[in-house]
Design brief:
Chains A, B: This is carnosine N-methyltransferase. Chains A, B: GO terms for molecular function: carnosine N-methyltransferase activity. 2 copies of one chain form a homodimer. Chain A has 13 helices and 9 strands. Chain A is of the alpha/beta class and 482 residues long. In chain A, the strands form 2 sheets. Chain A has a 7-stranded mixed sheet, with helices on both faces. A two-stranded antiparallel ribbon of chain A has the order 3-4. In chain A, helix 1 crosses helix 6. The interface between A and B is large, with 96 and 96 residues.
């Protein structure tokens, strides 16, 4: 009875912290117009400091600023529509006095609640999909030695799904700021110039939190990820990354039947396109994703899209660097390139929110998957050995693991943070560890690819990604025990 | 007389601030062993947290840590030798109570002293060269969305050369820390295992300053820059960046004579290789560089190298990310690939320290150069229009401007900083501005290249750099007046 009480209190605390975490993410999304407007003002201040002769040479700049504001307004319209469609898994209006101490956020960042024993609470409805960024992004605009860098002031908060009471589902209103009303007079308008219903003030002032810059960067990251997964302009990147995986699955499972389709898990599913494509191939396909930033957006695109090219966004406006022309920087991108609901998703498609280790360590997951596909995922681990161990455990004997990606360990070089565990193996060592966990190589090659890159930028980060297919040998093999 | 007094006081203040700035840079260099050791300790802490079964799989790790420490020790040996050879332009031991207020550093960062009217104080001795990173670097190990990012917490302090009293030139001693003596028992040894004379404690405790992480990153950046400019492993990058420039100069100045060689300026000269190669072609060649980090290193390589492959450094040890194998990460690089003193430098080779705008705005510079070569330099401007204007002014009529580089504006997106001016033009606009300043295009193309990239890394940042040759039309052309 005491244990029950303890358990209840722990669950309550967890939920309170999750609400706090989700509020922070919603606030970051809501802050998008203000943060973007602040950028434009910074550009304006620089322009105003120019000597008159230089200003004359750049007389088209005030017009550029006006155009930028219109683009921001269109992006905001999309974001607010997405938030309005989002049904949070908690009653977001409830009081959150989670821990009572000031280290709450810190505690979340330290994965205080990783012990919670809640396996995958995924929905399996092929169209209604609940969703969850390991690969956050930076604007790609600056460094001081021409080599890519790191931003890890904060990391995303833990947001695993719960066996949750969806009580009090509370659609979010948007909070356009005072500034947003000044955007060239056309606050939040859609492509037809109609003022969106999202342009109403949110009644809940608690969303008007202080939003750290890293959170703002994550929103911009999502916008770039949308191009990768859901725009025609992202096709080249998808062809580089997803097509080899899809071809491999197609070859490895030649005689898959509708009656008992093979089951494929995609950890680090991001905005869901790869998992959707695997479903279209006739697999039971489950995407797993850790980030609510991603979850909110993928759910919107998967579940709420009415038609192709429904939305126009301006993903490249947030950097003035490495642009060939202002028109390139301000070019629109239409999304989605396909209508997910009529894209041939097959039965058993799901998106599952939560931390891969927590969700798939559950004993119910052992030996249940025919295939695991990891694309730009392995390096999101604190302990990559643990990831490999889990992948091995959840695969059936004879099951396949297809991997594609670099080794840009997410917790490497986290200066100034609490001491986060980060095991950073070379590719050679990753492969050795995989062999120890009962895998054998079937294929291996290197694929050159980009990730959320602006295809017209003068600077593009290239990955020489490891691509492999490994097969889990039968259970006779001795896997090191823990 | 009052004005004289005022002037004297200002110069004194400037010098005090320069000393402070140089002390900070020397401290960053001296901090290299400690900062690197701290990284290894972080790796060790993560390793110790592994469950026993995982630790068993990585039983070679303790040996890797030992190897890392030996590499750090070798790098430290190089750095300390460089610092010992460095002759600072000031008496570094003098008291510095520069401004008396706590905002000194801030003031430096704000270019308080940009008004100082000191033109180029360069030495022209072809072998004895005084030197001065716009393109700082990051370890390239991490971000959260696969696109390169920015680090601009601090920027380098202003370090223009002075009409300086080289009084009390004071060779610096090194400060190996207590930790350095623990490095596998082989503290600061050269490749023959001899303990270097640099392993003596510095008598000046003021160099044991707190060293911010951005400064540590700049030291690592320099190590990568050495590969770009002075190692065989950097040849591919030099062939991409420098060879097209050298070929163009060779073609444009076919009949250059020893008696009156054409004069070529290289702003943003970095570690000096490009300027040296231009000198070898028979040009009067002057490199201009803003950063003391770069100056100290280029001076050492240019003036103190005894032979090729004199030093062994380990440039790739500072990131565990995107490595194919530990051996790749720990591979040595020999420097320099050529012996500068016997490399065929021709008369009039110099390196000039200081801010490009300050040094070359001086009226004495007008119309003095036959060629200006900008390689990864234009985007270091606060105001790129000003750079273009100055390049136009200092060229003779009919002189040529060869440019190669992206537009990764260094002062873009400097969140959290004082409001730094940053004018970020698209390539199209840069070219329009150049036309306005009297240039006409002779050649234009795009060159794909890297910058200080580890050629064996799974992640490489690619630049689609603009390459052009423009000619300054004769003076009849109307250039917009200021």
């Amino acid at each position: 009875m005491d244990e029950d009480e303890e358990q209840r209190r722990r669950l309550k605390l967890e939920e309170a912290l999750e609400i706090q975490s989700l509020r922070r993410i919603v606030s970051a999304y809501l802050n998008y117009p203000d943060a973007s407007e602040e950028d434009v003002r910074r550009y304006e201040r620089s322009y105003k400091k120019l000597p008159p002769a230089h200003k004359d040479l750049l007389s088209h700049y005030p017009l550029k600023f006006q155009r930028l504001r219109r683009c921001i307004s269109m992006n905001s319209h999309f974001i607010f529509s997405m938030l309005q469609a989002f049904e949070p898994p908690f009653d977001m209006s409830q009081d959150i006095d989670a821990s009572g101490d000031s280290h709450t956020e810190h505690a979340q960042e330290d994965h205080l609640f990783c012990q919670a024993n809640n396996a995958c609470s995924c929905e399996a409805d092929p169209v209604r999909i609940t969703c969850s960024d390991q690969h956050g992004c930076m604007e790609g605009s600056n460094d001081t030695c021409r080599s890519p860098g790191q931003v890890y002031a904060n990391k995303e908060v833990d947001n695993k799904s719960h066996n949750q009471s969806n009580a009090g589902s509370h659609p979010l209103s948007s909070v356009p700021s005072k500034e947003s009303e000044e955007y060239g007079g056309s606050a939040i308008t859609d492509s037809n110039g109609n003022v969106s219903s999202s342009a109403q003030h949110c009644s809940d002032p608690s969303f008007q939190l202080y939003v750290p810059l890293v959170d703002v960067d994550k929103v911009r990251c999502i916008i770039r990820n949308i191009v990768r997964d859901w725009a025609s302009e992202g096709k080249n990147e998808r062809d580089q990354c997803y097509t080899p995986i899809l071809e491999e699955l197609n070859t490895l499972f030649p005689n898959r039947s509708k009656e008992s389709p093979p089951a494929c898990l995609v950890p680090g599913a991001g905005l869901g396109r790869l998992a959707l494509e695997i479903s279209r191939l006739g697999f039971i396909s489950q995407g797993n994703e850790f980030s609510y930033y991603m979850m909110i957006c993928s759910s919107f695109i998967l579940n709420n899209s009415q038609t192709t090219d429904e939305w126009t966004i301006y993903p490249w406006i947030h950097s003035n660097c490495n642009s060939l022309s202002d028109n390139d920087q301000l070019r629109p991108v239409s999304i989605p390139d396909i209508h997910p609901a009529s894209a041939g998703i097959t039965e058993g498609f799901s998106m599952c929110g939560g931390d891969f280790v927590e969700v798939y360590s559950d004993s119910s997951q052992a030996g249940t998957w025919d295939a695991v596909v990891t694309c730009f995922f392995l390096d999101t681990a604190h302990n990559i050995v643990e990831y490999i161990e889990i992948i091995s455990k959840i695969l059936k004997d004879g099951g396949v693991w297809i991997n594609m990606g670099p080794l840009l360990y997410h917790f490497a070089d986290m200066y100034g943070q609490e001491d986060e565990m980060s095991i950073e193996l070379s590719l050679e060592d990753v492969k050795k560890v995989a062999l120890q966990y009962g895998f054998e190589f079937e294929k291996e090659r290197t694929i050159e690819t980009t990730y959320t890159t602006n295809p017209k930028s003068m600077m593009q980060n290239h990955y020489f990604a490891a691509f492999w297919t490994m097969r889990k040998k039968s259970a006779t093999v001795q896997v090191p025990s823990e």
